[in-house]
Amino acid sequence: MADKKKKRDVLPEQKPITDFQKGQTAKLFAEIAAMDKTVVVNKHSKPLCAVISYERYKRLKEEGVDI
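Given the sequence above, the corresponding structure tokens read:
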């Protein structure tokens, strides 16, 4: 088993939808892009959608991920 590559089990950051409604959207998008991260947007404490950086999106598409 030591030879197998282990996947990191990392949960993406979560933000309430209200953070995107308070005039913070441009700042949040800039942070997501700059840090190449994924953010899950929650509405009523339930996942609604995911926002990823464009660089991450391109990598996933190149890897053949259906997104």
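The mean pLDDT is 87. Try to locate this feature in the token string yourself.
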